[in-house]
Fold:
Amino acid sequence: MKILGIETSCDETAAAVVENGFLVRSSVVASQVDVHHAYGGVVPELAARKHMENICIVVDQALAEAGVNLGDINGIAVTRGPGLVGALLVGFSFAKALSYGMGVPWIGVDHLKGHLNSVFLGHQKPAFPFVALLVSGGHTGIYHVTSHIEARLMGQTRDDAAGEAFDKVAKMLELGYPGGVLISEMAVQGDPEKIHFPRAWIDKTRYAFSFSGLKTAVKRYIETHADYREHMADIAAGFEEAVVDVLSQKLLHAAEETGCRDMAVVGGVAANRRLRKKIAEAAGERGLKLHVPDISLCGDNAAMIAAAGYHYLADPEGPRGRLDDDVYSRAQA
Ligand code: KG4
Ligand code: ZN
Structure:
């Protein structure tokens, strides 16, 4: 069963063809970084306009790269939320119209369920139930995942998402946007032990996160060290280590508490090499299995949306999209 996935929740116009929920035939992501770069963040109105320009081209390219025609597609999965409403509406309306015209079923998929399914797009698949750390620019939480479409949120951030903290610290250091990759590249040259930034555990045995204090600590360091430009790599490394420390320990604790042998790290920040390495090492020591998506499938993409959508559409009794369905901006409880 071939599903066409469409994702336009933020600043990436993406389309993909995925077979049977795991085999990626194509995954095209048109980044809008150039459009938003000058503003230091995503401008919602510009994102929506750019999606309108890109969507037909990106879908055509995904079909061409997969070597299929629209007639080969059995269903369409599209991101319904959370995200920027104007941006979501472009992909959502496009998917509705296309499915109506083609006479195939479609389904609106939660973006976070998409990220959780990204870990099934590789060779090794986690066994249910597993615990997942979802770390992106908009979300940071730990989930107990019991099926492709069911996951219980064990805890999440009370303020900034981890990716957001990376982006804001990159802005303070005038590294540019988006900041996650830039900080991690700079951190490689630094010493993570040199500058110690605070870790907000809140409660070491629970799964709530907070990154605003860490962000303020970096800001204070910059303000009180006139020569901070000479220590940029150490600041980046110290900051990255503080984030990675909390994320990894909480995920390991969740695995221990739930008795899960399999763990997953998904979302844009899952591309962070220090995070992948630290959790992989700890997993190895404890005999646990860590699953991470390929780097190209950590950030927003449509393959993960197609993968999640497949599990609704492959079920004859499963839900189907309706023409009066609407998008949503905030995470659903
Ligand atoms: O999942 P994603 O593409 O979009 C959202 O759903 O939010 O995540 C984007 C976030 C950005 O904040 C970006 O800075 C961060 O992921 N990111 C990273 C790295 N690559 C991307 N953060 C840390 N290290 C990285 N290598
Ligand atoms: Zn995302």
